[in-house]
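Troubleshooting log. The previous run stalled partway through. Resubmitting the same two chains, unchanged.
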Amino acid sequence: MIMRDSFEPASREEKESHFELVKGVSYWQDAWRRLKRNKVAMISIYIIAFIFVFAFIGPMFSDYDYTTQLRGQENIAPSWGFPFGTDNLGRDLLVRTMYGARVSLIVGVCASLIVLVIGTVYGSVSGYFGGRVDDVMMRVVELIYSLPDILVVLLLSAVLRTPLQIWFNSSGGFIAGKLSVVGPGLISIFIAFGLLYWVGMARIIRGQVLMLKEQEYVVAAKALGAGSKRIIVKHLWPNCIGQIIVTTCMQIPSAIFLESFLSFLGVGVSAPLTSLGSMSADALGGMYTYSYRLIIPAIILSLMILSLNLFGDGLRDALDPRLKK
Amino acid sequence: MTRYVVQRVAQALIVLLLITSATFLLMNLVPGGPFLSEKAPSEQVLAALNEKYGLDQPVLVQLKNYVVNLVQGDLGVSYKMQKNRQVIDIIMEMFPISAKIGAISLLLALVVGIPMGCVAAYNRGTRIDSSLRVLTTLGISVPGFVVATVLLILFGSIWHLLPTVGLTSWKSYIMPCFSNAFYPMCYIGRLARSSMLDVINQEYIRTARAKGVAPITIVFKHALRNAFIPVLTYLGPLTAYILTGGFVVESVFNIPGLGRYFVQSISNRDYPIIMGTTIFLAALIICMNLIVDILYRYVDPRIDLSKGGNKE
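Second attempt completed without errors. Output:
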């Protein structure tokens, strides 16, 4: 039998201790906690951070530039003065490796941003409006999907080299000056990413939007008179932010992969600028005598792609636990 | 089914025509014709050259001529690398070499990749699984040229086990094929593992297990059929990867195949060769995608191809 005095009003501390139990955890805190628990992903972050420091801050501490040619110091083996040695033109390979890593990272990030912008806008418009718009837009995606991508990039860089070179030489403008350092090869890589590689992103975002647009809050927003643009930007994008971030991150290593492939074939960055792929290609000639010239950039490149891949996997598990297998 | 096949073939032809026109227009509309890059020829010579190769006609007429010739198997003649030789002859001479390496690499990727994924899924959560995962993650992170050059240094230069240049004996195929197959092998391994795990949790597998079928039989006989479908869809991109991977491998190992020739033609700007090879390889990749799409239906009759064909 329950007596009246079996029940006591809860004390303040007791109430608070209950609140403590259900303390809200935001999406980001939750994701960060999951990410921190993932050892592989955390190690990858440290490696990526180290490579960033190596690539962007490292050259500041060097006496040489990637173009500096030291007469009489050609073909030096790794030593105290030149930890990675020098090449046949007397250029310090340590600094060149740093610049190469920088180029690879910049290409990866920029290409992913291009994919992010085009893919997200295209996918959400296609998914949100549906019907005939969706049909036509997805036909275009299908068409692009069936194009052999690497052939297109090679073709673009072959075709664009001459006109871009002519343009660089004729116009002395600031943009042309900056772009001529980058070279026609890299510009065609960016163009190719803008033309071809956003389709994966667009498909993923479209799928998400198709699912999300049926939800009550979208109906509510519509009933309140929100326009399509507002619904997409304010309601749909924030709800697929996890997917967007993960897909963008996954794009970085594949862009680096592609850039190194093209630079290795000689259609990527143009000399004297270098990238890890073109350094490896340069080293091919003296491969047996100076194997370290090939091995060092190759290892850094592989390590970079590996840790970005592992980090991307960790990020996916953290941001979207449903996807975990 | 027939309607679907016809539809798909038509679509493939349209894509091919689009690629051809885009390639052609890109090459012709962009300033800096094929003869400009050399030590500027005199105007008369340039005009004569343009007339000889039909470059003085309007671009659309040239395109029409090119497509008409293409249908008849005529891809024009080389401007520079093997002057005035038929591009189609060059392709026919070089492609068999590339095809041989490509076919071996493709088989290697499938024959090693699929069982690797099955073994990993079968031993899920054990040390075997995690070490296979390390291997495959490494495999999809290391570019093909890194694998090729490291192998070359180790086996060719340090241990002197395998020939490093050209194709002289069966041993010469080992390194090129392995370095070309390594990435797709690992990719297929991951793909096979995850689709195998999806299948293993299904009812009919539990039934088979309850009946006392040996675990090996379950994995390789009952589950593999369904787990194979995602791998099948990867066959199209796989072909594209192997063909383009050939560019690197043939350059590194000095193999006189079409891939190396294509890369050389790009740096020499021999437009008819670039164009002919691009269209040839594109046609090959599109054909492979077509075959895969149709095979898909035979392997899994549940897929309704008339509704777009994609499961997504």
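Takeaways: Chain B touches chain A through 48 residues (CB under 8 Å). Chain B is about 75% helix and 0% strand.
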